[in-house]
TrEMBL record:
A divalent metal cation binds at residues 8, 10, 42. One of its GO terms (molecular function) is 2-C-methyl-D-erythritol 2,4-cyclodiphosphate synthase activity. The lineage of its organism: Bacteria, Pseudomonadati, Pseudomonadota, Gammaproteobacteria, Chromatiales. Binds 1 divalent metal cation per subunit. Involved in the biosynthesis of isopentenyl diphosphate (IPP) and dimethylallyl diphosphate (DMAPP), two major building blocks of isoprenoid compounds. Catalyzes the conversion of 4-diphosphocytidyl-2-C-methyl-D-erythritol 2-phosphate (CDP-ME2P) to 2-C-methyl-D-erythritol 2,4-cyclodiphosphate (ME-CPP) with a corresponding release of cytidine 5-monophosphate (CMP). It comes from Candidatus Thiodiazotropha endolucinida. This is 2-C-methyl-D-erythritol 2,4-cyclodiphosphate synthase. Pfam families: YgbB. Residues 1-154 form the 2-C-methyl-D-erythritol 2,4-cyclodiphosphate synthase domain. The record marks 34, 133 as: Transition state stabilizer. Its cofactor is a divalent metal cation. Pathway: Isoprenoid biosynthesis; isopentenyl diphosphate biosynthesis via DXP pathway; isopentenyl diphosphate from 1-deoxy-D-xylulose 5-phosphate: step 4/6. It catalyses: 4-CDP-2-C-methyl-D-erythritol 2-phosphate = 2-C-methyl-D-erythritol 2,4-cyclic diphosphate + CMP. InterPro entries: MECDP_synthase, MECDP_synthase_CS, MECDP_synthase_sf.
Length: 161
């Protein structure tokens, strides 16, 4: 078994769309980023890469590489999954938390889970996504941006004598 954790945060940017967990969430601002700014998928990618001992998302998909400008983060997640599978690793489960004062995310969490289940090649019940506020404290509490945390468990094939 291998455990990995990931974190990502982006500031809000007017005039952009908000994508979280692979789905578009209605909001008057999006997240400023080189890619589509999906902090949940970025944190998930970091957790997966960390558990596999493969570094972090910035190492694999640098933000100064123009080929990743505006890229759908689900494409990055699928590429991470290809790397895991090439090492014989499988995702056992994933637990994630989105930290945002706004918008209210509860109505979208199931859709995010369903979206990510396909990319992770995992049953929905092995994925958990939560949303919380910081009660007005810090940059997320002031409505300046969104952060996300992810924890994953990977399994290696067992060698039998």
């Amino acid at each position: 078994m291998r455990i990995g954790q990931g974190y990502d945060a982006h500031r809000f940017e007017p005039g952009s769309h908000l994508v979280l967990g692979g789905i578009e969430v209605p909001h008057d601002q999006g997240l400023k980023a080189h890619s589509d700014g999906d902090v949940l998928i970025h944190a998930l990618c970091d957790a997966l890469l960390g558990a596999a001992g493969l570094g972090d998302i910035g190492r694999h998909f640098p933000d100064d590489d123009p080929s990743y400008a505006g890229i759908d983060s689900r494409i990055l997640l699928r590429r991470v999954m290809e790397q895991l599978h090439s090492k014989g690793l499988q995702v056992s489960n994933a637990d994630m938390t989105i930290i945002a004062q706004q918008p209210k995310l509860a109505p979208y969490l199931d859709a995010m889970r369903d979206c990510l289940a396909g990319d992770l090649q995992l049953e929905e019940q092995r994925i958990n996504i939560k949303a919380t506020t910081t009660e007005g404290m810090g940059f997320t509490g002031r409505g300046e941006g969104i952060a996300a945390l992810a924890t994953v468990l990977l399994e290696e094939p067992r060698l039998v004598d």
